[in-house]
Amino acid sequence: MSEDAPRTTHPALTILGGGVMGEALLAGVLASGWAVDDVAVTEPFAVRANELSSRYGVRAADGNAKASRRADVVVIAVKPKDVGAVLAEISGALRPGTLVVSIAAGLPCAFYEQRLPAGTPVVRVMPNTPAVIGQGASAISPGTHADEGHLALTERILATSGLVVRADEKDLDAVTAISGSGPAYVFYVVDAMAEAGVLLGLTRARARELAVQTVLGSAALLAETGEHPVILRERVSSPGGTTVAAVRELDAHGVRAAFLAAAEAARDRSRQLAAEAAAPQHG
Ligand SMILES: NC(=O)C1=CN([C@@H]2O[C@H](COP(=O)(O)OP(=O)(O)OC[C@H]3O[C@@H](n4cnc5c(N)ncnc54)[C@H](O)[C@@H]3O)[C@@H](O)[C@H]2O)C=CC1
Ligand SMILES: O=C(O)[C@@H]1CCC=N1
């Protein structure tokens, strides 16, 4: 870039919680040109904080209140059970207008609005772990005081780690059940396919290599052709062939029904997380 090229300005971003998702978002914005001085992370475990600051060159030494004070956007990336305590810490430190973005599962925007200064703009996000490699999928939903500008800013941040869609807040528990938890289902399927390969006599390494590439290639085929999955499945299924024999077993073992029940369980657990976070803390 020439020295005369206009510099993109980025809002000051503070990520509270430097775990799996906090790091994914951190890596995403830095890879997209955010300067290390524009980004900070907080993390109570010193070893982890040091790891993040040495890996990315960002500030990771401050507590939540201090790090939030100078932020234009605060991203809450702690576990749902820890959000209430974090909000109590930062509520008095936020400058008016600071955007609060939360990725915590289950907790509605109202949870934040009840605990932060009146008028605080809040955007609730459900991302997923492929964000780590820039292949995430996030759904975002505005709180009462978040306007188009706040949504656009959230999109700008999340787009650094993959696809971003807007969703009604009533759908975020369902989004959590599909794309938030979804990577785990895919890893489960890959592991099961690899195990099946071992059953049939393949080496574990060969079976896993083939299973991973099959999932990767199939996902790319879906995305690139835009075809319905049923059409693509039919193209694999020769009359009287191997695939129909296999899919009949998947049906007989209730795999489709298991996915439906799994999604309902994840949605219900997401709702429960909100109830637990709102309940008074014991112990
Ligand atoms: N892991 C996933 O696939 C997804 C997680 N989420 C949500 O993201 C949030 C974070 O999840 P993960 O990154 O998986 O968890 P994690 O356990 O890897 O990270 C949480 C981090 O917060 C730190 N922490 C704990 N208390 C803190 C405090 N008071 N102040 C600052 N940091 C504190 C912990 O030391 C830890 O490093 C959760 O609310 C989860 O519901 C959302 C979508 C996907
Ligand atoms: O399991 C969880 O609660 C988090 C939210 C979505 C994915 N992981």
- The CATH superfamily label of the largest domain reads NAD(P)-binding Rossmann-like Domain
Give the helix level as a range of percent.
40-55%
Whole-number radius of gyration?
A: 22 Å
Q: How much of the polypeptide forms β-strand, as a percent range? A: 5-15%
Q: In terms of structural class, how would the helical and strand content be classed?
A: alpha/beta
* CATH-defined topology of the largest domain: Rossmann fold
State the shape: elongated
Q: What string gives the helices and strands in order? A: EHEHHEHEHEEHEHHHHHH
- Can you count the helices? 12
**Regions with pLDDT < 50 over 5+ consecutive residues?**
none
CATH architectural arrangement of the largest domain? 3-Layer(aba) Sandwich
What small-molecule ligands were found?
1,4-dihydronicotinamide adenine dinucleotide, (2S)-3,4-dihydro-2H-pyrrole-2-carboxylic acid
Q: Give the spatial strand order of the biggest sheet.
A: 2-1-3-4-5-6-7
Highest CATH level, the class of the largest domain: Alpha Beta
Largest sheet: 7 strands, mixed
Care to describe what's here?
The protein is an alpha/beta fold and 283 residues long. Helices cover 52% and strands 12% of the residues. It is built from twelve helices and seven strands. Helix 4 (80-90) runs parallel beside helix 12 (255-278), helix 7 packs across helix 12 (255-278) and helix 8 (182-199) packs across helix 9 (204-225). The mean pLDDT is 95. Bound molecules: 1,4-dihydronicotinamide adenine dinucleotide and (2S)-3,4-dihydro-2H-pyrrole-2-carboxylic acid. The site of (2S)-3,4-dihydro-2H-pyrrole-2-carboxylic acid has 4 residues, from helix 7. It comes from Pengzhenrongella sicca. Residues 13-106 form the Pyrroline-5-carboxylate reductase catalytic N-terminal domain. Belongs to the pyrroline-5-carboxylate reductase family. GO terms for molecular function: pyrroline-5-carboxylate reductase activity.
